[in-house]
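@channel sequence for tomorrow's demo:
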Amino acid sequence: MPRKKSPPLQSTSSTPLALSQLHIRLDFLEKSHKSLLKQIKRKRTELNNFVEQMRTFALHIFHQASPHFQKMAELDQDIHALFEEILTTRKFGKQTIKNIEAVYLKLQLTGIISHKPGRQQFNTELDEPFNNSEPESDFSEEAAENRHQHWQAQQSVESPSVARTEDKRKIRETFLRLAEIFHPDKVKDSETQKYHTEIMKSINKAYQEGDLARLIEIEQTQQAGEIIDYNSEDDLTRKCRTLEQQNQILLTQYENLKRELRLAKNTPEGTMVSDSRKAAKKGIDSTALMLETIESQINVVAHIRDFVKNFKEQKITIKEFLAGPPTLHSFEEEIMEDILEQMLSELMK
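structure tokens (generated this afternoon):
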């Protein structure tokens, strides 16, 4: 009887330890990579939405408060004109003129009226707590845009640069790889050229902004990534190295986005947006409240204008004029209370 041949042994290909470790490492890096891309996308959306809210809110306030600002500007001009007429047409002694000029200067220093150069020869010593008071907020469209541009320039200068030499090189490598694939000149078909042209616009924009995350998103969406042989140690090693480098750049990009958002929230517009959100949760209309505050300030300035006008028309004496209107005293008390409240809040932090 012929001898039965033993069945051939099935070859069991055991994965080398180094290859197995590379698979584990690659899996970890890919998960970190996906997580960073998601975080960047969320943070970028959050930043863009907040910046848009800032612009919208500033423009809304500007349009709502524009008539009030116009009224305030008219009152401001009236008061300057009244003082100019008083100081040029009325006959006073040197000390009286000096005292009247001191009142005029005090109104400017306290921010009740605008600063007007030309009468800076005042030899007065005003020991007032309002000399360093902040200027009134300007909610005009132009001012809002200027502040936004200043914020963008500030964060660009102060933020740790994503584009370190090595990072620039890696971003450029990704850009060139995509440009090689999607450059319109690489194809003949007109429809494909149009399609590639639109993709290249996004690629160029992302490259100019140093946005590696966006370049990677384009690469993944268009399935333009390199083909990896998962049984090749060289391919896995190269892929791991690429992911490590990209993840480091992506982490920096994410941290910069968080920082830009913090800077945005600390701008005047950003603070107003944040405060309005808090107020809305409590059922408070912050815009209406702001307009009420502006109206109350207009009333104060209107009373002061009438007070100066009465002095010009000699309806009150010099002594009464130098004592100042009661409205001004209450206004000063409010400013002092605000200053003290702000100091206490800073100490409590």
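heads up for whoever presents: Residues 1-17, 120-141, 157-163 have pLDDT under 50 and may be disordered.
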